[in-house]
Amino acid sequence: MRTTPGRAERVDVRAAGAVVWRESGEIAVVHRPRYDDWSFPKGKLDRGETMPFAAVREVAEETGLRARLGPLLGDVRYTVPEGRKLVGYWSAHAADGGFAPNEETDELRWVSPGHAAEMLSYLHDLDVLRRFAARGRPTSTIVLVRHAKAGSRAQWDGADVERPLSSTGREQARHLGALLPLFGPDRLVSAPPQRCRATIAPLASALGLPVGDEPLLSEDAYRDDPAAGLGRLLE
């Protein structure tokens, strides 16, 4: 059950998971012998871990599958002995791997969404399933990223298109280079400004992918013709 938008609520436990799907249209549900329940793979965040990293790690630990994240399905919140728990969920494609029984899960079943609705043990998992079903399996995922923090305009004497990232921005770019591979990108494009290309450079290096230029996504071009920029993004 989701919290009403805009309403603050204490969160004592944070966790993340995924509705993992494969090309047949089936989704993965797992059985946890400790609780004798059926649910989606999920688990608590490790110290310093972000939600996307935790979702991919927990899927791997509980199912043996390497998940490629897709759209965010939102979160559910409920009460556990430790207090209020928040679990963030993604739709995720099973890229490869295979299940073997482990300490947390002793069975995985690939089932249709309709069959999953009959198996799941908790109402909050049914809420997540409904969100997944409403979206359908994604045919592709676009991750749109604003450039990292750039240096001050007032302190830069050159052309604005050449204005570099600040030290904070360079650190943000390094973090993005570690985070975004979780979504399995196979194509990278950037607006022409140096700060945009520098933001995506660590990711390009990590994936070994070239970065294409896309002028229609630049600040000036989008301001002049938003429809053209949006159309290019959706091609």
Short summary:
With 235 residues, the chain is of the alpha/beta class. The protein contains seven helices and nine strands; from the N terminus they run E-E-E-E-H-E-E-E-H-H-H-E-H-E-H-H.
Notes on the structure:
With 235 residues, this protein is of the alpha/beta class. The protein folds into two domains: 13-135, Nucleoside Triphosphate Pyrophosphohydrolase (Alpha-Beta Complex), CATH 3.90.79.10; 160-234, Phosphoglycerate mutase-like (Rossmann fold). Helices cover 32% and strands 27% of the residues. It contains seven helices and nine strands; from the N terminus they run ββββαβββαααβαβαα. It has helices at residues 51-63, 113-119, 123-135, 167-179, 194-207, 219-224, 226-234, and strands at residues 13-21, 27-32, 37-39, 42-44, 65-80, 83-97, 107-111, 188-190, 211-213. The chain has a four-stranded mixed beta sheet. Helix 4 runs parallel beside helix 5. Mean pLDDT is 93; it is low at 1-5.
